[in-house]
Sequence to fold (340 residues):
Amino acid sequence: MGYNVVVVGATGNVGREMLNILAEREFPIDKIAVLASRRSLGTEVSFGDRTLKTEDLDQFDFTGWDMALFAVGSEATRDYAPKAAKAGCVVIDNSSLYRYDSEVPLIVPEVNPQAVHGYARKNIIANPNCSTAQMVVALKPLHDRARIKRVVVSTYQSVSGAGKEGIDELWDQTKSIYNPTDDKPPKKFQKQIAFNVIPHIDVFMEDGSTKEEWKMVVETKKIIDPAIKLTATCVRVPVFVGHAEAINIEFEEFLDEDEARDILRESPGLMVIDKREDGGYVTPVECVGDFATFISRIRQDSTIDNGLNLWCVSDNLRKGAALNAVQIAELLGREVLKKG
Ligand SMILES: NC(=O)c1ccc[n+]([C@@H]2O[C@H](COP(=O)([O-])OP(=O)(O)OC[C@H]3O[C@@H](n4cnc5c(N)ncnc54)[C@H](OP(=O)(O)O)[C@@H]3O)[C@@H](O)[C@H]2O)c1
Fold:
C-alpha cells in the first residue's frame, strides 16, 4: 500500500524536479495529482514514464490525500496550504511562509529528522531555503564534533533559485548581448545578470542585510543550534542551476582539516571531492541532477585559533528544494504515516 500524493506547482522548476525525484526514488505512490494555476489547466508534465495533466489548484479537494508537496510561492501557499492541512493532508512546503513558525517543524532529514514528530500541530512541515539546506548538511557533523561558534558564508546562487522567470532572463539577456538591437533590460533581477554578479537576493532588511541573508541566519539556528552565530552575503551569479558557497567556520575546539575531511566523508548526503590539484574540486555545473552536496577546498584558517574554510556546492532545485521535500515525505512515511 502506498500514498496518495499531490504535487502543487507541478509546472514550475521545483515541482517538475519533485516529480522526477519521486519517480527516481520509487516513492510508494498509489495515486498522484499534479496541480498548478488555472492558466496551466491540462498542461502535461512527466512523471517517470507517465504523462500527467495538471489540474487547477483552486478547484482541488484535498480530502483523502495523504501528503501535498507545495512549490507555489508564499502567496498561493497562504491561500491553499491551510485548506489542504485542514482536510487531513500533510503539507510539505517549499515557500518561506511557515519556516519561522514555532508550530511548524523546519526539516533537513540528514540534520534534524526528529523534528518530524512536530508536524501534527498544524499538519504542515517546512522546507528550508536552498542556500541553508546544503550548508546545514555540511555544518551539522562538524558542529557535533567541535561546536561551531561562528560562520561567515558567501553564496554564489544560480538563477533557477528565482524560478522559471530567472532562467528565462539569463538565457534571453545572454543572447541579446550578442545582438544589440534585441535589448533585454533587467526585469526579474535588479541589474543585468548576464556576464555579471548581483549582491542582492530578496528584499532589503532594516540593518542593510537582505532577506535571503537573514533566512540563512534564522534557519541555521532553528535547524541546528540557536547558539550558532552566522553572517552571510548572498550573491546571484549567471549560472543556470547549482548554488556554491564559500564557508568560513570558527569552532569552540580545534578541528584538524584531515579529521574534518574524514568526518564529512562519512556523513549522510555529502560527497567530498578535495584534491589539491587543477580541477580537484566541484563546480555548480558538475552537481546538476545529483542528490549529493559536494564539499571541496577543506583547509585550516590560520588567522584564528579554531578555524576552517570549505567550498560547498549542490543542485539548488534538488537538495535546495525538491529532493529535501521528497526526503521529508519519506521520513514522514517511515516515522509517522507508516503506509508504504
Ligand atoms: N528554485 C529554487 O531553488 C527554490 C529553492 C527553495 C525553495 N523554492 C521555493 O519553491 C517555490 C516554487 O519555486 P519555483 O522555482 O518552482 O517557481 P516557478 O518555477 O516560478 O514555478 C511556480 C509554480 O507555482 C505555480 N503557481 C504560482 N502561483 C499559483 C497560484 N496562485 N495557484 C496555483 N499555482 C500557482 C505555477 O503554476 P503556473 O505554471 O500555472 O503559473 C508554477 O507551477 C517558491 O516558493 C520558491 O521560493 C525554490
Q: What stands out?
A: The first helix runs from residue 13 to 24. The chain has eight helices and 14 strands.
